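Next comes one such specimen:
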Amino acid sequence: MSAYITDRRIPTTMATQHPDNASPPYWKSNGDAFVSSYDEVFECYLNFAELGCEEYMWDWEGKFVDEAVVERLYSDYFDFFLQRQLGRDIFLTFRLPNIWLERGYRLVRAYMSILTAEEVARDLNMFSPPLFEVILPMCDEAWKLIYLQESFEQAANLERQMFGNGRPIYRLQVIPLIETPELLVDAKKLLDDYLNLHREKFGDDPPYIRAFIARSDPALNSGIVTAVLAAKGALCEFADFEEESGIPVFPIIGVGCLPFRGGFSPFTVEQFLSEYEGVRTVTIQSAFRYDYPKESVERAIRDLNLSLRFRWSKKPRWQEGDKEKLKRLIAIFTHPYQEVVEGLAELVNELAALVPRRRERMLHIGLFGYPRGLRGKVLPRAIPFTAAFYSLGIPPEFLGVGRGLVEAEKEELLDTLFRYYRNIKLDLQQAGGFLCWENLTLLEQELPLWSKVREDIELCQRFLGIEFGPTETEHFLHRNLVSSVYHLWRRGRDEERLRRYIIEAGQIRRSLG
């Protein structure tokens, strides 16, 4: 008999705490867009009860967290959770700290929170256990998944001994969050290794695997084209593993609203789903929930909850020879992107520091946080990185893409590129409306490296047959704001007004970063 919780619903819409919203949450009456760790319990409830999300990611990775979340949810909203029970109908999923990168004591606290939630649920005659699945960020080796399962079992055994109950111990289901292009495009190996280790350690197979595709960090480190191709490669890898092993794989993809971070908003659902066939669960991040009309958000989530269960069965598959071509394309587009970002890292960090915080994150570097870096240069997290470029009127979607297209054409790989990245023209067109040519000219005068960015943009225009720049009223309003951002920033004046313009520009494009 399996030690897993097996007969369960697989959720389709996962609300997350990614701090990319420019506007205040609709439920905050004071107009403050900052969401404290105390607010997040109420937010979690509303995401289930009002917006209709089926899952909520409770994030322990590099941020402060309310460890009594389940007790507070049951205490404050008992009637709701009596009708829609955690672990049966809707799901709360911890993203754990990666103990190989972050101090391990917080992992033990997360385990205790999971085990305490089980006790509370049993005392209230609720479905138990309410929490049984966790996410491992930056997963790079299969043995780490097994380690978490074994260490949780040890913690559960200790808890049973201390309190003298004889209930059976369930096995923790661990979701690998895969965050580099190299690992994504070879994701079948990670799952194969996990399956072999699982059989060796436990003597059985997992009933299913939920595998999580990162979309923002691959873009941050390697550019938009690499991020999309890596995600598409991972979906093909998952389909191959499922066919070979017979174990269902339910892919999750972590996406934001701007094209650089995924291009997934209430207004682009069909475009997004046509790009990422085979995805079963999508993240509904803060900008999706709070920078769009609430009725549009509710409708989009309702439609996703209905459609993703059926669309998931249509899985992308590798065509012969395409995997090696995709790896070559990833190398082609990564190099020019990293060349530019490496040279602009200091400037980006300076401006990113002015992007308003939206959540209670711990230190980014050092004792608590994970460094996000590129060839020795420290970068901001993906959201402030994206916000910094957009606040200058230079969408990061373009970095390295034009020169990558030239090289792909030389190597006769454009057909493969456009087959795997179907919406490249739509994504760049959407980003291109927020391009401020005037700021680009001023930046070029400061640093010649910006001429590479201009080259990328002009080559994209030639290849795709479109011109970038403002075309609609919101684009022109955005251009005026980012022009003001540039001039205030370069003169070192009126930081309060500068931050206000950064926020207002984010509200126009409906996402901070």
